[in-house]
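FAQ: What does the model actually see?

It sees only this:
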Amino acid sequence: MTLLLNAVAAFLLLTLLVALVRIWNGPTPSDRMLASQLFGTTGVALLLVLAEAQGLPALRDVALILALLSVLAIVGFVTRVVRIDRRES
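And it is asked to produce this:
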């Protein structure tokens, strides 16, 4: 079972690498924000898999905090974009 969880963790790390490349090369701020959301979601999944594989329940708490911070980041981004759109209209 540990081998399977480690394989899943490796796949999630590869997904994080793809998201990081997208954040770096994103042509628009919206693309970068979506990639950072992918980064946050995959980070939560990776932490949960590692918590199960290593038997560290504290990683579940870290995953919960990362999920909350990810939601706050998207709310801040959307609020900023809405303000910019209102000024342009």
